[in-house]
């Protein structure tokens, strides 16, 4: 049952800062029950509980933490149909989307459990003492990673499960051994509470301190700001807009003790259509592009917001095919009224820019209820694109701008002007790829993931995924927010020098009781170290 309460230090309590109701974006009707907002005092209670839990949680074994993550996954699945049904009610997504996202969320938790059992994320390095080395002896040095401390995670609007309460940031932080305080998203508060109920049960079953996980809801920026500036908080995970991410980043950097904000923000995810590929398969590429553009009403951070190609009859064929495909796309329900209004404003702004023409549109909204919008594809010359930075701005939703270039030099010029992106895509033949070293080099500097003859929509959760990129796609291009490598965001290295052997953490002990892979005197091994 959804109560509208906050989870603070293991207790469900009524928020002290007002009430609100979620809205069904498909109908614009309010959804029961009435929810509550946390007060500043309640934020401080959650933070204090996390700080108290931090040393206890950090001291858990890899096995204990892995089993806890698996319990989280089990408890989410135990919620049954009520969870995807609530997702559908609060987001306008079909129930199948909620079921798919639930599967991704629990599989993600189980993947992290498997990953931390291996101990790879600890990056253990041991250089034993060399007392007889000349001219100076070497001390015994042992390096490992340890949890950074309490982490605040901001739930995303567009992924109510996979990037929210038990999503990637939360899974990574818990895997690292960090307590988590989630600031839930007000677009889907019931979904947030249901998942928090599952994680709360997992905390209890695992015998962990209550402060390992809390859920806070808040209006405006007050609660989020209070969480970020709390001195006990040591890192922030965020997925959302550039404005939101930068506001948190600046708050965190203005603290007496600055902390990292791992924010995944805006990206237009350029798609480069090379001539031979278009010549061979313009219609097929157009179909794939429109499918990627309109999937989930375009409400993905890897939605292809810009495409570019050299003008040719094959590009004209692509435009005609894309227009025909778009015309069959129904008006889509956006996640909330604010996102729908921003989309309408953004598409009007694009249409008003000099040199911009409409290539095609989806079906009209007509008399549909709720927060519905129409898909659109615009076209502009490279000259106009290069002269107008507004055309590079992300409009969140199912809209894209196609840039028509006169030649290869102009295509490269367009790519050079791009800001940092989550993804870059090449539609190309093998022969073209072999001759596009400069283009590929430029894209590698701009993106976190380079896609070839696929489309960017969809982020596989696995060991090899990179979901991040140069600013402004993310605040730190060195890290991913998806996949097991994302754990690295929430640990920090520590080196023990000449530390008493009997007091070393288990992973650094000579006997290697957890049988972990370690770099010992430059050699990767799981063997014990000779005393």
3D architecture notes:
By secondary structure, the chain is an alpha/beta fold. It folds into two domains: 8-265 and 480-489, Aldehyde Dehydrogenase, Chain A, domain 1 (3-Layer(aba) Sandwich); 270-452, Aldehyde Dehydrogenase, Chain A, domain 2, CATH 3.40.309. Helix content is 37%, strand content 20%. Strands 15-17-18-13-12-19-20 form a seven-stranded mixed beta sheet, sandwiched between helices. A five-stranded mixed beta sheet has the order 21-6-5-22-23, with no helix packed on it. Strands 9-8-7-10-11 form a five-stranded parallel beta sheet, sandwiched between helices. α8 (242-253) links the parallel β10 (235-239) and β11 (261-264). α2 (62-78) packs antiparallel against α4, α4 (95-118) runs parallel beside α5 (168-176) and α9 (275-294) runs parallel beside α10. The longest helix is centred in the first third of the chain and has 24 residues, at 95-118. It starts with 5 loop residues before the first strand and ends in a 6-residue tail after the last strand. The relative contact order is 0.13. The model has no long low-confidence stretch (mean pLDDT 97).
Keywords:
531 residues; 7-stranded mixed beta sheet; Aldehyde Dehydrogenase, Chain A, domain 1; alpha/beta; Aldehyde dehydrogenase (NADP(+)); 2 domains; ALDH_KGSADH; 37% helix; 5-stranded mixed beta sheet; 23 strands; Aldehyde Dehydrogenase, Chain A, domain 2
Can you name the CATH architecture of the largest domain?
3-Layer(aba) Sandwich
CATH H level, superfamily name of the largest domain:
Aldehyde Dehydrogenase, Chain A, domain 1
Largest sheet: 7 strands, mixed
What proportion of the residues form beta strands (DSSP E)?
15-25%
- Tell me, briefly, the overall form: globular
Percent range of helical residues: 25-40%
In total, how many domains does the architecture comprise? 2
The helix/strand class is alpha/beta
CATH class of the largest domain: Alpha Beta
The number of distinct β-strands equals: 23
Mean pLDDT: 97
Low-confidence stretches: none
Question: Termini, distance in Å?
Answer: 57 Å
Overall radius of gyration: 25 Å
Return the CATH topology of the largest domain: Aldehyde Dehydrogenase, Chain A, domain 1
Numbering strands along the chain, what is their spatial order in the largest sheet? 15-17-18-13-12-19-20
Q: Given the structure, what is the number of helices?
A: 15
């Amino acid at each position: 049952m959804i109560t509208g309460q906050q989870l603070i230090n293991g207790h469900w309590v009524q928020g002290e800062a007002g009430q609100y109701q979620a809205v069904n974006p498909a109908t614009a009707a309010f959804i029961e029950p009435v929810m509550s907002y946390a007060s500043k005092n309640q934020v401080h209670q959650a933070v204090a509980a996390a700080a108290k839990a931090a040393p206890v949680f950090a001291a858990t074994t890899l096995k204990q933490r892995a089993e806890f993550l698996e319990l989280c996954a089990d408890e989410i699945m135990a919620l049954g149909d009520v969870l995807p049904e609530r997702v559908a009610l609060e987001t306008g997504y079909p129930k199948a989307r909620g079921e798919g996202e639930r599967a991704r969320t629990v599989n993600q938790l189980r993947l992290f459990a498997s990953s931390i059992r291996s101990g790879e994320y600890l990056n253990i390095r041991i250089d034993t003492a060399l007392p007889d080395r000349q001219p100076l002896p070497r001390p015994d040095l042992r390096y490992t990673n340890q949890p950074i401390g309490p982490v605040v995670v901001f739930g995303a609007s567009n992924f109510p499960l996979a990037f929210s309460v038990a999503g990637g940031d939360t899974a990574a932080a818990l895997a690292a051994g960090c307590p988590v305080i989630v600031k839930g998203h007000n677009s889907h508060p019931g979904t947030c509470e249901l998942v928090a109920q599952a994680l709360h049960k997992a905390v209890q079953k695992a015998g962990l301190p209550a402060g390992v996980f809390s859920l806070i809801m808040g209006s405006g920026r007050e609660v989020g700001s209070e969480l970020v500036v709390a001195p006990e908080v040591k890192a922030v995970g965020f997925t959302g807009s550039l404005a939101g991410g930068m506001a948190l980043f600046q708050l965190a950097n203005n603290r007496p003790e600055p902390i990292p904000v791992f924010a995944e923000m805006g990206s237009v995810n350029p798609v480069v259509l090379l001539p031979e590929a278009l010549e061979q398969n313009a219609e097929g590429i157009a179909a794939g592009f429109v499918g990627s553009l309109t999937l989930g009403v375009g409400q993905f951070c890897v939605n292809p917001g810009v495409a570019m190609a050299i003008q040719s009859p094959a590009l004209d064929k692509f435009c005609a095919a894309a227009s025909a495909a778009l015309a069959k796309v129904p008006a889509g329900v956006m996640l909330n009224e604010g996102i729908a209004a921003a989309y309408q404003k953004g598409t009007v702004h694009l249409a008003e820019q000099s040199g911009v023409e409409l290539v095609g549109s989806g079906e009209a909204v007509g008399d549909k209820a709720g927060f519905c919008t129409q898909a659109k594809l615009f076209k502009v010359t490279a000259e106009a694109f290069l002269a107008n930075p507004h055309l590079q701005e992300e409009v969140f939703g199912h809209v894209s701008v196609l840039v028509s270039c006169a030649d290869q030099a102009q295509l490269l010029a367009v790519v050079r002007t791009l800001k940092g992106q989550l993804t870059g895509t090449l539609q190309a033949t093998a022969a073209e790829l072999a001759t596009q070293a400069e283009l590929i080099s430029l894209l590698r500097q701009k993106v976190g993931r380079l896609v070839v003859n696929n489309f960017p929509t969809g982020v596989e959760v696995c060991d090899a995924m990179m979901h991040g990129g140069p600013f402004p796609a993310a605040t730190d291009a060195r890290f991913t927010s998806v996949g097991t490598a994302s754990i690295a965001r929430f640990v920090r290295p520590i080196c023990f020098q000449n530390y008493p052997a009997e007091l070393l953490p288990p992973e650094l002990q000579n006997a290697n009781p957890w049988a972990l892979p370690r770099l010992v005197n430059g050699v990767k091994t799981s063997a014990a170290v000779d005393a």
